[in-house]
Amino acid sequence: MLKSKEKLILETMRADEASHMKSSFIADMSHEIRTPLNAIAGFSELLIDEATESKEKKEYSAIIQNNTDLMLTLVNDVLDLSKMKTGDMSFNLQKVPLAECCQKALDSIRQSVPEEVALTFNPAPEQIIIKTDAMRLQQLLTNLLANAIKFTEKGEINLAYSLEVDRKQVRITVTDTGTGVPPEIQEEIFKRFKNQDGSRAGTGLGLPICYYIAEHLSGPGKIFLDTSYTAGARFVFIHPCETDVPVI
Question: Fewest beta carbons within 10 Å, which of 72, 73, 83, 155?
Fold first, then answer.
């Protein structure tokens, strides 16, 4: 009888926690959705105002486009989060050149990089082939690069990779000269909604999605924040690889 009561109490606590998390999630999403929607609605009105000058219309159009992109990212992130929770996120592993995946990720975010920030790429000299899901790896890299863009106003954002000593793994890094990650949230940076700066636009889901993808491509603990780097932020992802082999 006692065990049954303890079990009931435990299940009730879990249900309450799940309900709280659901309510918190809905509240966070409502806030995230309202922010770009308000901007889109407000600047759309200014855009059609006859008193708005041509130069201003270009600025407003850029703001609308930026917030539209943010909305699309939010929707995609929520869909991915749903797939993560149900285990339905699929992975199609094939042998691909790492340099190609990196270049595509760089191209996808290049236009979002601030004028005073240099976007650089330092691949290893060897041809490195990885067995991975190219789309998911590009998603991971794009999320890391987009995160760097949010917190870097000047300096450099660098994507690089190099072989580990055993030559069976490759170390992929995204390094920036931005504001860095405050020590108090470094251990929780891959958790949902741990946006390190509430004033910056973002869903707070990019890094948790990166963590989930990394676990499925390489295993637990293979993506992490390099806390020894203090000139900004550096994220590291370790992926199994092969060198100088043909792509099948």
Answer: 72
What phi and psi values does residue 3 have, to the nearest 5 degrees? Answer: -65, -40
Query: Are residues 95 and 247 in contact, defined by beta-carbon separation less than 8 angstroms?
Result: yes
Dist CA 48 CA 63 (whole Å): 14
Query: Count of H helices and E strands in the chain?
Result: 5, 8
Distance of CA 128 to the CA centre of its chain: 24
Nearest to 171 by CA among 222, 135, 106: 222
Which is it for the CA torsion 26, 29, 31, 37, positive or negative? negative
Query: Which portions of the chain are predicted below pLDDT 70?
Result: 1-3, 16-32, 35, 70, 73, 192-204, 244-248
- Determine the length of the chain: 248
Distance of CA 174 to the CA centre of its chain: 11
Using only the alpha carbons of the chain, give its radius of gyration: 21
Summarised one tens digit per residue, pLDDT across range 133-158 is 998 999 899 999 999 999 999 999 99
Q: What is the DSSP letter of 230?
A: -
- In order of 19, 126, 151, 209, 213, the CA distances from 25 in angstroms are 10, 44, 24, 15, 21
Predicted TM-score (pTM) of the model is: 0.71
Express each pLDDT in 85-140 by its tens digit: 777 778 889 999 999 999 999 998 888 899 999 999 999 999 999 999 998 999 89
